[in-house]
SH3 domain-containing protein (Eucalyptus grandis), 323 residues
Amino acid sequence: MEAIRKQATKLRDQVAKQQQAVFRQFTGVYGSDNVIADETELQHHQRLEKLYISTRAGKHFQRDIVRGVEGYIVHGSKQVEIGTKLSEDCRKYAMVMGAPLEDARQLAQRYDRVRQEAEAQGIDVSRRQARVRDSMGNPDIVMKLEAAEAKLLELKTNTATLGKEATAAMAAVEGQQQKMTLQRLVAMVESERTYHQRVLQILDQLEGELLSERQRIEASPSVSVDTSVPPPPPYEEINGSFASQTYDETADTIDYFLGEVVHPFRGVSDVELSLSAGDYVVVRKVSNSGWAEGECKGKAGWFPLDYVERRERVLASKMAHVF
């Protein structure tokens, strides 16, 4: 039992020493040969990480735009057309599933793998350098160290090249994403503006038509005519009587008087008398329906009573035009 306990203690001490050696290699021994310590590679790595995060945020932002538009287009058919076009353009051109973005991402991932290999190779070189110092110049160990250093140099070169290529590719993708996103947003705003301008033109045209119709209605004279009353009866010039007895029953007989026409009236039947503004007419009969029968310029017929005004005195020159 005692021998087993001593063997376990010895093994535990060896493991602790190995852990401390590995820790020292990671913290200080790697020195200037460490890829991470190299300033240029560190800058490439940091910039590549920023570009990777930026392009990923741009991709998510474009997806959010598509989803936002798809939620907005339910409010109208015009918004549906705009949202569908924007969604298709984003899927095709806005780098959501585009080949340039995938190529740039593959370059970035390849750069990460090569960089990790370089880090591991740097640790291996440091370990072999320690063995060379302990072996007092063993040729076999020295040869392996030289091979490891050559491989490390090659990995450093590949890392630098891939870092530049990946950085350039990611920067190009980011610029294209921003440009395409801006173009899609501008196109959406322009479509919305064009749509609302067209609506405004239609409303302006409708307003103009309504105003024109209202002015026409207000300008035309209003005549109070009872449409339920049958049309005025024909006037008989031969015997001076009326053919229809319907109006005789509903009409009030009054004394003749002269009236001046204040609104022109155009007769649409043979029993209606056409009048011009300024004419004088002899009113012979007035109906309860608002129509009057009279004579003007040798013609007799019916006309709206509201179109004439009663005159008590008329010049003799005007009387000549009545009969």
